[in-house]
UniProtKB/TrEMBL annotation:
Belongs to the Tlp family. NCBIfam families: SASP_tlp. It is found in: Spore core. The keyword Coiled coil does not apply. The gene is tlp. It comes from Rossellomorea oryzaecorticis. Pfam families: Tlp (PF19824). It comes from the Bacteria. This is Small, acid-soluble spore protein Tlp.
């Protein structure tokens, strides 16, 4: 079987939409994690949830920055 070496076109037309979906999904996960904190007595688990949500906040900042970049790229096309 011959392999097609022709690269796929770079289609970024829906990147902003995908990134916005990732932002929404991350926010939902943060909210669920915060709700779950009320149901644990484990200090270790509480610290784990807090640490994970902090990483999620950092991811949200990165997603939002990338959305701005992609939106600017789409405007330039």
């Amino acid at each position: 079987m011959a392999w097609n070496s022709k690269p796929n076109p770079d289609d970024r037309s829906d990147n902003v939409e995908k990134l916005q979906g990732m932002v929404q999904h991350t926010i939902e996960n943060m909210e669920k994690a915060e709700e779950s904190m009320a149901f644990t007595d484990s200090e270790e688990q509480l610290q784990s949830i807090k640490a994970k949500n902090e990483r999620r906040r950092e991811s949200l900042e990165a997603f939002r920055s990338e959305i701005k970049d992609e939106a600017g790229q789409n405007d330039n096309r």
